[in-house]
Write a structure and sequence with these properties.
Blueprint lengths: L6 E6 L7 H13 L2 E7 L3 H13 L3 E4 L7 H7 L1
Parallel strand pairs: 1-2, 2-3
């Protein structure tokens, strides 16, 4: 692969999982495969802060606070 080629993962959930060393390994694997930026998307308010904090500590991770479509009815009904 051309070493000058750079990719952006425009939709990922790199934060999923309880194993923090595995998180660092997933980010390193992305970098090793020329993925230089990742848009990490929360699925609801339960993981929003985690995604935002990850984006603060990992320069290659951007945060998107979102509500996954499978959770939208729960949110709307609770309002």
């Amino acid at each position: 692969m051309n070493p000058e080629l750079k990719f952006i993962d425009s939709h990922c959930h790199v934060h999923f999982g309880d194993d923090k060393p595995a998180l660092a390994q997933r980010i390193k694997m992305a970098h090793d495969n020329h993925v230089n930026q990742m848009l990490c998307i929360s699925i609801d308010e339960s993981d929003r802060d985690e995604v935002i904090e990850l984006s603060r500590t990992q320069p290659s991770v951007l945060a998107a606070a979102a509500i996954h479509p499978t959770h939208d009815r729960e949110i709307v009904q609770s309002v």
